[in-house]
Input
Amino acid sequence: MKTKTKKVIYWVLTGLVSFVFLGSTFGKLTGNEEALKMAANFGLDSKTYLLIGVIELVSLILFIIPRTGIIGTMLLSAFMGGAIATHLEHNESVIAPCIILTFTLLIAAYRFPELISKLMNKKS
Output
């Protein structure tokens, strides 16, 4: 595969993950009624939900930037782990957060082959 094709795939996949997280972040940062209702169901007030949105946005920005992408991947993974735990605690479906987490990790594996090498303890 040509380098240009790989870069296009790289940025398209990154854009897809970004789109999903931006939608979620937008709801938290704007404090729309539906997002705040869901937050209340989870026992969160609007200030805490706003803080979660800021953390999500910072993690996403770190994920998008190639130089900080691995740390962004780890932060988004931790973020989604928290979402899964929260959904489990409140008897909500965990299918969507699990799919988003899996998709994020698969894209990270494509973007950062060195991450897989480190996790598998292989020499690059």
About this structure: The chain has six helices and no strands. The helical segments are 3-30, 33-41, 46-64, 69-89, 95-111, 113-119.
